[in-house]
Amino acid sequence: MVPVRLRLDHMEFSSRLLCWHPSRDTLVAFAAGGLCVGLSLAMIPAKNTLWLSIIIRDFGQILLGVLFPMAYIRLRGESFSDFGFSFRKWRLFLPINLILGAALLLMFLSESPPPEGFRFETGVLWRAAFVFCALFFELVFFYGFLRTLFERSFGIVPAIFLTAFFYALHHAGFQPEYGKLLFVGLMYATVYRLGNSALLIFPFFLGVGGEYDVLIQSKAVSPILFPVARTLYLFPLLLFLVFKFSFRQRMPPGR
Asked: What is the DSSP code string of the chain?
């Protein structure tokens, strides 16, 4: 006979993989994900009006996509660590993050090396800085916020797939490579969930993947216009949001 404790552990594990507990959080997750995709779709007709396209991307997606999750978590009285935003086990997770990032970089260099004559000049570095701001938004909004809300409603496995689905679709207005991006979303969401920590993918693993794809690999991504000006207002505003919501005060100390 199977011991009762073992059977209970198995049932508990199964219920974490798949469950059905829809709630108000479920509606919030679908609404937020749908709005993010809708904003990206709005960028398609807005491409002929550069300032409108930039406003949608920078303020509608990136800044609002960080502000809303942080405000929602704070207003609900929840801990940021429940969404993976903490320094818990950083001595273990950061080295894993670095190793994964290095392995991904080696794979990229082998399969799709930079074009001849490619240099990390000033313009490239500014575009990289803008991409980093966008990656921070993706970390917070998709892998931390949406995935956690979906997991509470449907379990770990459906949450990972739903997160990857919304992540891929939110590129509609500037990088419509849905098949590749769906796989990327599954990869990052899975690794994030293994330790329920942002430190498993950010900054190295997610950074290498996002930066290399946008700057070198992708043939479908839209050009990054005015990266200097956009980075100069996005980066300090993102920092302000982090400190505004007392990220560092609410994080448990590293262990």
From this structure: ---HHHHHHHHHHHHHHS-----HHHHHHHHHHHHHHHHHHHTTGGGGSHHHHHHIIIIIIIIHHHHHHHHHHHHTT--GGGGT-S-TTHHHHHHHHHHHHHHHHHHHHHHSPPPTT----HHHHHHHHHHHHHHHHHIIIIIIIIHHHHHHHH-HHHHHHHHHHHHHHTTTTT---HHHHHHHHHHHHHHHHHHT-GGGTTTHHHHHHHHHIIIII-SSSPP--SHHHHHHHHHHHHHHHHHHTTHHHHSPPP-
Is position 150 within any domain?
A: yes
pTM of the model: 0.92
* Per-residue confidence (pLDDT) for residue 242, from 0 to 100: 93
Domain assignment of residue 183, given as a range: 39-250
**Total domain count for the chain?**
1
pLDDT mean by block of 10 residues, the chain; 255 residues: 47 77 97 98 93 97 98 94 95 98 97 91 97 98 98 98 98 97 98 98 98 96 96 98 71 46
Picking from 166, 196, 191, the residue whose alpha carbon sits closest to that of residue 181 is 166
Residue 32 domain-assigned (yes or no): no
Q: How many CB atoms lie within 10 A of CB 25?
A: 16
pLDDT at residue 13, as a whole number: 55
C-alpha–C-alpha distance, residues 146 and 29, integer Å: 6
225 within a domain of the structure (yes/no): yes
| Residue 137 Cα distances to 116, 118, 194, angstroms | 32, 27, 20
